[in-house]
């Protein structure tokens, strides 16, 4: 609600949070709350853009890769079709910001001012930016230095408010949530290592449904899925997409989560690519196996899902925005082969059963993205785990430390108000359990636990009233930032 309030007030907002904290859900609410004729929803990847009913940031900007000189980029953005939506845009939404290069962000900011002929940051456009910089970084060539958007020269003058969502909703197992929190920050303790290595013994098959293999490289995904489909006996059933504009197939392919051609066989491992019935568990990422095909002419597939539902899968429609704001569409089965999927393609998804080989991890945040796709520790199987693959970029960690430090005063005030029932009787003495509850409400503001502070507060609580606990917390934790 705070993020929504900030957006409605006209402020430019960046909101972040770990995987599963509801960023995508909130972003869809924001998109729905703004006037559609002056709001442009974009994302760094086509699939992410499709999820919010938008287009890629590059398609919106109309300046290609943005590596050309500024004057040339401005000329590209001045083309009639591109200039029109630069001028119309009052609210620009950017999802999956972690994969947007900082140099590209600076170029966009300068282009916006030039095309709109306004000196305000980003030409006066309100920015609503979402993502987690501790997930996948910008894609750069081997000889290029990675520059995150928060390192862009224009970032601070463009973004007025930074907020972090802290409650994980995707996973409910506290042990798994703690494990993922550690991995996200690049920490791999002995306990984390032990838990992940134990998952190698987990079953990779349940009721005929195999765990999806997450791969670091796209080529491995294509080879695995093609090979496993060929190994199945029986006839191949081919489903061709119906696209609104066959001349723009490449653009539709880039933004639609399903391909123009889907090949299936009896026994094929598949994954839903769209929410069909949330109440039954038929959601984006739900895993299943093809158990039959209808006898009618269309021969639509029947899929038994891990949630226990067997469903006849019909054609669904995706609507995406083209570079000039033109709406394009694709009708296709909401299914894709699921023996394997790339870590990049999995970002933003929740998967029932996942098998991961992390031996070829090559980027900071990649191991975290892969592991956090699983809904539970029981549905995760990690092969050849090596603690060395758990990495977080030092610059990103420093950015989040500063972000939390600025949030601290407001968050502490709110958490003290949440703890108010425990403060009603100033003379009441407290035990360890009361203090741990109180501290858990306070510590959510800093994103870390300070053991020294907790020991000091526990001692204070056993013999004094709660005000001493607060003072103890101030002395031991706040003084160190």
Automatic annotation (TrEMBL):
Pfam families: PIF1, Pif1_2B_dom. The gene is PIF1. It is found in: Nucleus; Mitochondrion. GO terms for cellular component: mitochondrion; nucleus. InterPro entries: DNA_helicase_pif1-like_DEAD, P-loop_NTPase, Pif1-like_2B_dom, PIF1_helicase, PIF1_RRM3_pfh1. This is ATP-dependent DNA helicase PIF1. Residues 252-293 form the DNA helicase Pif1-like 2B domain. Its main location: nucleus.
């Amino acid at each position: 609600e705070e993020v929504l309030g900030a957006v409605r007030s006209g402020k430019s907002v960046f909101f972040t949070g770990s995987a599963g904290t509801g960023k995508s859900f909130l972003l869809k609410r924001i998109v729905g709350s703004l006037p559609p004729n002056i709001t442009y929803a974009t994302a760094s990847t086509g699939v992410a853009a499709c999820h919010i009913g938008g287009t890629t940031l590059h398609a919106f900007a109309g300046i290609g890769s943005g590596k050309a000189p500024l004057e040339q980029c401005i000329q590209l953005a001045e083309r009639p079709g591109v200039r029109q939506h630069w001028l119309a845009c009052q609210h620009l939404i950017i999802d999956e910001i972690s994969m947007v290069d900082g140099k590209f962000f600076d170029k966009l900011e300068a282009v916006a001012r030039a095309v709109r002929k306004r000196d305000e940051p980003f030409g006066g456009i309100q920015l609503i930016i979402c993502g987690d910089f501790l997930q996948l970084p910008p894609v750069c060539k081997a000889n290029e230095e990675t520059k995150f958007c928060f390192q862009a020269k224009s970032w601070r003058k463009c973004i007025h408010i930074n907020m972090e969502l802290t409650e994980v909703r995707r996973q409910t197992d506290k042990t798994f949530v703690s494990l993922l929190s550690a991995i996200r920050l690049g920490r791999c303790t002995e306990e984390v290592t032990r838990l992940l290595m134990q998952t190698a013994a987990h079953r990779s098959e349940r009721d005929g449904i195999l765990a999806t293999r997450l791969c670091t490289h796209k080529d491995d995904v294509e080879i695995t899925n093609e090979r496993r489909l060929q190994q199945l006996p029986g006839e191949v059933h081919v489903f061709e997409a119906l696209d609104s504009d066959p001349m723009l197939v490449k653009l539709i392919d880039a933004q639609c989560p399903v391909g123009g051609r889907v090949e299936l066989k009896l026994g094929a491992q598949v994954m839903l690519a769209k929410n069909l019935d949330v109440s039954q568990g038929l959601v984006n990422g739900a895993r299943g196996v093809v158990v039959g095909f209808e006898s009618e002419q269309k021969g639509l597939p029947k899929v038994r899902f891990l949630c226990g539902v067997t469903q006849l899968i019909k054609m669904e429609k995706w609507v995406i925005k083209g570079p000039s704001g033109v709406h394009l569409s694709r009708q296709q089965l909401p299914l894709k082969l699921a023996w394997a999927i790339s870590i990049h393609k999995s970002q933003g998804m929740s998967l029932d059963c996942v098998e991961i080989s992390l031996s070829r991890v090559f980027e900071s945040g990649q191991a975290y993205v892969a592991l956090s796709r699983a809904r539970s520790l029981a549905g995760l199987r990690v092969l050849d785990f090596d603690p060395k693959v758990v990495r977080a970029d030092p610059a990103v960690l420093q950015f989040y430390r500063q972000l939390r430090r600025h949030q601290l005063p407001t968050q502490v005030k709110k958490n003290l108000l949440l703890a108010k029932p425990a403060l009603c009787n100033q003379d009441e003495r407290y035990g360890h359990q009361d203090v741990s509850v109180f501290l858990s409400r306070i510590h959510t503001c800093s994103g870390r636990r300070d053991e020294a502070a907790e020991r000091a507060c526990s001692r204070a609580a056993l013999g004094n009233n709660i005000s001493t606990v607060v003072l103890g917390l101030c002395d031991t934790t706040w003084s160190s930032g």
